[in-house]
Amino acid sequence: MVDPQVIHDLGGRSLSVVTKKLIPFVKSHRNGNSTWYTGLCIDLLDLLAESLNFTYTLSESADGIWGSKLANGTWAGMTGMLHRKEADLAVSGFSVSAERAEVSDYTVGFYYDDVILMTTFPDATPAGWTFYVKPFHWQVYLLLGCCFLLMTVVLSIMDIHFVRANARFPSTREKKTGLAFIASWAWKAFEALLGGLIGRAVAHEAVSRGGRVLLWAWMLMCLVTVAAYTGKLTSNSVVTKQPVPFNSLSELVQRTDYRWGIIKGTQQEYTFATSNLSDYQLYYERAERTGEEPVSELLAGNFVQVTSAVFYRVQKRKHCRMTVVKERLSQDTFAIHLQKDSPYTALFNHVLARATEQGLLDYLKREWFPQESSCQDSENRVMPVSVELVKTAFIMAALGVLVAAVVLMLERLLTRRFLREAGRTEL
């Protein structure tokens, strides 16, 4: 046993170090047959080696796993190598846990990170005709429809009553009673109200004062409504991202349009596998086992990954579509792992504490960890309106031409019928 109060020099002995690639903690480089490593953890390892006078040989996890307990009670990954004394220490973005502490030791934490749900922004532009419906909630459309029908009925009644009661409107061939008379004034009211709703000049002016006041109120309401719709439609057409449609794990597991994943052999997998919380259990049951960097799955859309916040920050600098769910699940502590009852634990803790006090640890973090992403502006950048966005408008115009042609034919048929009936009346 090395006494940390007496011996701070390991005499140049060589230690076996196992690692696993995880940017920015450990990054591998190849040149032909040679491989070397850089990253925050490699700089920490060099600092320890220089301070305590030891050398080291570096190798990667034999089975590619961080450290998990198998069903037969044995250990896999870097934790298994420490437990079998195949390595003296494990250095990477390697989180600590009570289960791993049963068979290995670890130093004080050199980095603390949130466990998050990482995903990508959904496409802000809905396909087809729904683009023109999205600006308002369905309740708004329902309320507008009810108001429109009510206003049409009320305005028609006002004008019909005024015409019948006012001597300034003398009788003609058309009687001031009957279905045709009522339909004529109802159509005028419908046309006037619809014109205000779609932003065109009102072709019909109400003959009664009450009707004109009603039209003024309707026009004022249309002014506000149309402005709100136009503004939201414009915003939807130029903003390239929209919020994630859920804010927590409990909301995610209720959705059927999303898939999610978890990395095999990680502390997150163990946490979800052993949790008594129903949301964690549902997530674990449907989770896909992914690689260390499930970028392709995330970019494909409608996929969520349990990971650390540092992985998100690294990928955010490359892919502006990356985002995180609001809820933070837990916090990981990253430390250097050693064999159980290792004689080096206290020495390593001493050097790490001095490095923290002198600001060396913070300096190394600033050197290796990604700074803020420059994607903030690009997430809401103005984009040219594509054909996909406006094709529905052209389809609506074509349908309008078709409907207008049908109305024209019906109008001609009704006009001929009216003229025939008028001719018989004169005879």
Q: Please tell me how large the radius of gyration is.
A: 36 Å
How much of the sequence is in beta strands?
15-25%
How would you describe the shape?
Answer: rod-shaped
> Oligomeric status of the shown chains?
single chain
Query: What name is given to the CATH topology of the domain at 14-110 and 335-368?
Result: D-Maltodextrin-Binding Protein, domain 2
SSE pattern, N- to C-terminal? EEEHEEEHEEEHHHHHEHHEHEHEEHHH
How much is the average pLDDT?
80
CATH class of the domain at 14-110 and 335-368: Alpha Beta
Q: Helicity level, as a percent range?
A: 40-55%
Through-space gap between termini? 127 Å
Let me know the largest β-sheet.
5 strands, mixed
**CATH architecture field of the domain at 14-110 and 335-368:** 3-Layer(aba) Sandwich
The low-confidence parts are: 1-7, 377-383
Keywords: Cell membrane, Coiled coil, Glycoprotein, Ion channel, Ion transport, Ligand-gated ion channel, Membrane, Receptor, Transmembrane, Transmembrane helix, Transport
Transmembrane segments: 140-158, 178-201, 213-231, 389-410
Domain Ionotropic glutamate receptor L-glutamate and glycine-binding: 24-84
GO molecular function: ligand-gated monoatomic ion channel activity
Summarize, please.
This protein is of the alpha/beta class and 427 residues long.
Keywords:
about 425 residues; alpha/beta; disordered N terminus; ligand-gated ion channel; ligand-gated monoatomic ion channel activity; ion transport
Your description of this structure?
One of its GO terms (biological process) is detection of stimulus involved in sensory perception. By secondary structure, the chain is an alpha/beta fold. The protein has a domain of 131 residues: 3-Layer(aba) Sandwich (D-Maltodextrin-Binding Protein, domain 2), CATH 3.40.190.10. It has 14 helices and 14 strands. The strands form four sheets. It has a five-stranded mixed β-sheet with strand order 4-1-7-14-8, sandwiched between helices. A five-stranded mixed β-sheet has the order 11-10-12-9-13, with helices on both faces. A hairpin with a 5-residue loop joins strand 5 and strand 6. Helix 1 crosses helix 12 and helix 4 packs antiparallel against helix 6. The longest helix is centred in the last third of the chain and has 40 residues.
